[in-house]
Amino acid sequence: MTHTTSPDSSVSNPVEALASVFSIDSLLTSDEREWQQKARAFAQERITPVIEDDFENKYFRRELIAELGATGFLGMHITGYGCAGASAVSYGAVCLELEAADSGWRTFVSVQGSLAMSAIAKFGSEQQKNDLLPRMARGEVVGCFALTEPDGGSDPAGMHTTAVRDGDDWVISGAKRWIGLASVADIAIVWAQTEDGVRGFIVPTTSEGFTATPIDGKLAMRASIQCDIELDGARVSEAMRLPKALGLRGPFSCLNEARYGIIWGVMGAARSCLEAALGRSIEREVFGGPIGRFQLTQDKLAGMLLEYQKGALLALHIGRQKDAGTLDPAQISVGKLNNVREAIAIAGTARSILGGDGVTSEFPVMRHMANLEAVRTYEGTDEIHTLVIGRALTGIAAFK
C-alpha cells in the first residue's frame, strides 16, 4: 500500500524537515549553540563547496589550517595557553558540524587538538606548553600523534619503537603507520619504549632521521593525509620529553579525547546522508509520484532518523558527563562503537534511497560511507571497544 496524498510542501526542504522532527540545537546552551553555528557556517562556506573535488583529487587544503585557528576550533577544549577553554559539549557540536562536511576535517581538528595539543597540555612542561600551545591554537604549528605501528594499533603495549638515553639526548628508532598530518606537521608526539616503560617525546619533523611518507591508494579520507613514519636514530634533547607522561596512561588519555570527538562527529556524517536521502525521496519520482510516498521508503527514513536521534542524544549525554567530570572511559567506548556503527548503517540506507545516483559524487553519501569505514578502524576498532565494554560489565579482560 502507498499513501495517495501529495507530499506536504512545508517539508520540501530536507534540512527544515529534519529539524522539524528532531534538532539538537534546542538542547544546547547559548554558548554551545554559538560554537555550533560558527562551525556550521565554516563547514558550509569553506569545506562543502570544494570537498568533492578535493576528495577526488586527493587534495589536502592546507590554507584552511590558519582559518581553523582563527575560529578558535584548534584545541578549543583546553583552558589557557591561547586556547578557548570551551566546554566538552561545545567541542562535540563543532565536531558534528565539521564532519557533516567531511570526516577528514573533523579528523584534522581532532589530531591537532585532541591528540597533539592534549598530549602537551596534559603531560608537557610549562615551557613546552607556553612555547607550543598558543602557536598550535593559531594553526601556526601543526602537530601529529605517532602511536600506531605497522604491525597494528590495537596493542600499543607491544610497540617496537624505542628511545634510548644518550647523555642529555634521546635517540628514537622505529616505525609508525597511519599517522594523520605527519607529512605537513611541524612536530610529532612520538610514543616509544624506554627502559622505564612507554614515554612521549616532542620530535620536530625536521629532525635528522625523521621521515614521513603519505600513504597512497586510499579509498577513504582522500582529502586528508595519513602517513608512514620512519625514525632512524632521530635525536631529541631531554627537554623535548613530555615529563608527566608515564606509561600507556599518557597516550590512552589522549585517545579518549579523540574518541569523544568521534562520537559527535560521525553523527554529522549521518545527518548529511539523511538530509540527502530525504531530499531525494521528495524530488525523485517513479510510478507517478515521489518515492517518499511509498511505505518502504518512509520506513527507511524513519529508521534512519531514529538512529541519528539516538546517536546525537547519546553524544550529548556523554558530553554532559564529560563536562561534569563523571564520565567513565567505558562510556566513551559505548559512544564510539554505537555511533560509528549506526552512522555507517544510515549511510548505507541513504545510498539505497538514492538508487544508482547514490554512488556518484553528485551526492555526499558514498564519500561519507568510505570515510566512516576509516573512522570505524581508527581510535579503536569495533572489536576493541566491544571488549572494553565487556570488561566493564564482567570485570574480566578478554584482550588476550
TrEMBL record:
List residues of the Acyl-CoA dehydrogenase/oxidase N-terminal domain. Answer: 29-140
What the entry lists under Gene3D superfamilies is as follows: Acyl-CoA dehydrogenase/oxidase, N-terminal domain, Butyryl-CoA Dehydrogenase, subunit A, domain 2, Butyryl-CoA Dehydrogenase, subunit A, domain 3
| Alphabetized Pfam families for the sequence | Acyl-CoA_dh_1, Acyl-CoA_dh_M, Acyl-CoA_dh_N
One MF term from GO for this chain?
fatty-acyl-CoA binding
InterPro entries in alphabetical order:
Acyl-CoA_DH_CS (IPR006089), Acyl-CoA_Oxase/DH_mid-dom (IPR006091), Acyl-CoA_Oxase/DH_mid-dom_sf (IPR046373), AcylCo_DH-like_C (IPR036250), AcylCo_DH/oxidase_C (IPR009075), AcylCoA_DH/ox_N (IPR013786), AcylCoA_DH/ox_N_sf (IPR037069), AcylCoA_DH/oxidase_NM_dom_sf (IPR009100)
The processes (GO biological process) annotated in the record are: fatty acid beta-oxidation using acyl-CoA dehydrogenase; fatty-acyl-CoA biosynthetic process
* Coiled-coil portions: none
The UniProt keywords, alphabetically, are: FAD, Flavoprotein, Oxidoreductase, Transit peptide
User: Which reaction does this enzyme catalyse, per its entry?
Assistant: glutaryl-CoA + oxidized [electron-transfer flavoprotein] + 2 H(+) = (2E)-butenoyl-CoA + reduced [electron-transfer flavoprotein] + CO2
Pathway per its UniProt entry is:
Amino-acid metabolism; lysine degradation; Amino-acid metabolism; tryptophan metabolism
Q: Does Membrane show up as a keyword for this record? A: no
Using the record's annotation, list all stretches that form the Acyl-CoA dehydrogenase/oxidase C-terminal domain. Answer: 253-393
Domain Acyl-CoA oxidase/dehydrogenase middle residues, every copy? 144-232
> PROSITE patterns from the entry?
ACYL_COA_DH_1 (PS00072)
The yes or no answer to whether the keyword Ribosomal protein is present is no
E.C. no: 1.3.8.6
| Cofactor(s) required, per the database record | FAD
Annotated PANTHER family: GLUTARYL-COA DEHYDROGENASE, MITOCHONDRIAL (PTHR42807)
Family, similarity comment: Belongs to the acyl-CoA dehydrogenase family.
Q: What name does this protein carry?
A: glutaryl-CoA dehydrogenase (ETF)
- Per the UniProt record, the source organism is Agreia pratensis
